[in-house]
């Protein structure tokens, strides 16, 4: 299927949900604890406030799940606790966006999308925008991503452009600047996406997505399309049906 994106940025998505809800979303406030009561669930926030609800939908990555204190009787399942403690592998991922005054790759008959001998995908995120300028982005994974993370931003760009010279000769002289993003350094992800081993997948995938009483689970890690937004959305639809039918 063709690639699609949310014009103006993916942070428009929660705003679109909010416009359809009767109550407003509380953004930027972390969940500190989830406690199961005799009837419903109490959710305590990092600012000390709390609310009691009938159901809770947990969508944080497994790498963050252990930061929330769960008070359940019975406790959260052993499978989920194992996955949250590091028993379900995640992929390291870092992006570097490089800006250019002209789309020289198109002049050379190239579309800006490629894979290289690094664990890397090369993307052209400005493919649908007008104007002479453009952006090329590297999507680096694994140890190569961790290596870039350990460098200063200027050295990171220097290393990347030296590598890209093998793909686009003369690219270093054309770059106007760059920004980077590392999911390993992101407080609410700590990694790129779920990438379990075959044995982890077989043993824990179904358990990760399984509801536990009034607690429901969604996110790309709880789907068959890990690493992609459609996986998160599909798992959200599945969890919404669970809540509706319970």
What about the largest sheet? 5 strands, antiparallel
For the secondary structure, the number of strands is 13
Sequence of strands across the biggest β-sheet: 8-9-10-7-11
Structural class: alpha+beta
In whole angstroms, the N-to-C terminal distance is: 34 Å
The value of Rg in angstroms is: 21 Å
Count of runs of 4 or more consecutive helical residues: 8
Strand fraction equals 15-25%
Query: What characteristic shape results from the CA principal axes?
Result: elongated
Low-confidence stretches: none
**Helix content, binned percent:** 25-40%
Report mean pLDDT, rounded to a whole number.
92
Order of helical and strand elements: HEEEEHEHEEHEEEHHEEHEH
Features:
elongated; 30% helix; 8 helices; alpha+beta; five-stranded antiparallel beta sheet; four-stranded mixed beta sheet; 246 residues; single chain
Q: How would you explain this protein's 3D organization?
A:
- It is a single chain.
- This protein is an alpha+beta fold and 246 residues long.
- It is 30% helix and 24% strand.
- It has helices spanning 12-18, 62-65, 78-87, 104-107, 142-149, 153-164, 198-209, 229-245, and strands at residues 31-36, 41-45, 50-53, 56-58, 69-71, 90-91, 93-100, 114-115, 120-123, 134-141, 175-182, 193-194, 215-217.
- A five-stranded antiparallel sheet has the order 8-9-10-7-11.
- A hairpin with a 4-residue loop joins strand 8 and strand 9.
- Helix 3 (78-87) packs across helix 7.
- The longest helix is centred in the C-terminal third of the chain and has 17 residues, at 229-245.
- The protein is elongated, with a radius of gyration of 21 Å.
- It starts with 11 loop residues before the first helix and ends with a helix.
